[in-house]
Write a structure and sequence with these properties.
The protein is built from 14 helices and 19 strands. Helix 8 links the parallel strand 13 and strand 14. The protein is globular and about 60 Å long. The protein starts with a strand and ends with a strand. It binds zinc ion.
């Protein structure tokens, strides 16, 4: 079943469903994205330690990566990326890119000076310089970056914020979503809305009604896994995700572990991103079909077997746990490259396996 999305050139194809889980394809002008999909995070115009060729190559075969508006705006800045002709050319990445709006980073990294109904004034976490981000400024930055999917500028309150703070943030996020929707985008740039509301299901559903009325190309759940318990995250997912419009892609922002992805897919989510596979790799944690491997562990000192015998990545086909442990201990930069390639391959295959199960056991659409 093929659904045209509001932005020309984009469509969403549902192939099969299994319970609330869906397998599909997000068609974009820069290529097809089989869903469910995990999107590697390329914060500063690079998925840390990986070249574009490595990301594209089988068996990783990343179809879409993330860029961070906040980071790229502060460094290298729009003058540089604009001169390159956009983020795709600057980073030599020809497949789709999704950019976040900068909202989450402003609220989590920067020193906030002032939040008002117009936008946010903050100081850079790099050099303390003062900046102002509004819905229009965020959209203009994302236009210059030239991402294939832009995100609306939203206010994400902390998980433990009280009801009054949530209500103000929700009203603001809806108003900001309208302003982002009204902003003229470049050809070939889709826009996703973001549903906030913390762990209160009624509040979430109310905000969902406001956001989905604005005819976005896709919908994201924001403000989950920001301090609440895993049980609360899962409860909200179960109660809310499958109620997002069926004919548009659904994106769970910034979550999470392999188990979180499986849970999210089961609840009806199509798209995920998280720094976990890349950041954990650099910190010595490698994902496998069995137990997670803590590579600095002494048990790996003489282990000449691969990190994961099931894994077809170049790291596992070529190198032993002992070698990786040695590189980690010696702080060799090759360690970060090998470990990142493995963890990203694990995540890609994990999601692909679930997709194949939905296609095999599910109902065709
Ligand atoms: Zn591997």
């Amino acid at each position: 079943m093929l659904f045209d999305l509001p932005t020309p050139g984009f469509s969403f194809e549902l192939l099969a469903t299994l319970g609330h889980a869906r397998a599909g394809i997000l068609h974009t002008p820069r290529g097809d994205i089989p869903t469910p999909v995990f999107m590697p995070v390329g914060t500063a115009g690079t998925v840390k330690a990986m070249t574009a060729d490595e990301l594209r190559a089988e068996p990783l075969d990343a179809r879409i990566i993330l860029g961070n508006t906040y980071h790229l705006y502060l460094r290298p800045g729009l003058e540089v990326i604009g001169a390159a002709g956009g983020l795709h050319r600057f980073a030599a990445w020809d497949r789709p890119i999704l950019t976040d709006s900068g909202g989450f980073q402003v609220f989590s990294l920067a020193a906030i000076n002032e939040i008002d109904d117009e936008g946010v004034t903050f100081r850079s976490h790099i050099d303390g310089s003062k900046h102002r981000l509004t819905p229009e400024v965020s959209m203009e930055i994302q236009r210059v970056l030239g991402s294939d999917i832009a995100m609306v500028f939203d206010q994400c309150p902390p998980g433990d914020a009280d009801a009054a703070i949530h209500e103000v943030a929700l009203a603001r996020t809806t108003a900001w979503a309208r302003r982002c929707r009204a902003f003229a985008r470049a050809d070939g740039q889709a826009l996703f809305g973001i549903v906030q509301g913390g762990v209160d299901t009624q509040r979430r559903l109310r905000h969902m009604a406001e956001i989905t009325a604005l005819d976005f190309d896709g919908h994201a759940l924001g403000g989950l896994a920001v301090g609440e318990t895993v049980d609360e995250t899962y409860r909200v997912l179960d109660e809310v995700a499958h109620l997002l419009p069926r004919e548009r892609p659904r994106y769970l922002m910034g979550v999470g572990t392999p188990a979180d992805l499986e849970k999210g897919i089961g609840a009806g989510i199509d798209m995920f991103d998280c720094v976990m596979p890349t950041r954990n790799a650099r910190n010595g944690y490698l994902f496998t079909q069995g137990a997670r491997v803590n590579i600095p562990n002494n048990a790996n000192r003489l282990d000449m077997g691969p990190v994961d015998p099931e894994c077809p990545c170049a790291t596992c086909r070529t190198h032993s746990r002992a070698y990786l442990r040695h590189l980690y201990q010696a702080k060799e930069i090759l360690y970060a490259r090998l470990a990142t390639l493995h963890n990203l391959t694990f995540y890609a295959r994990h999601v692909r396996r679930i997709r194949e199960r939905i296609l095999a056991e599910g109902t065709r659409c």
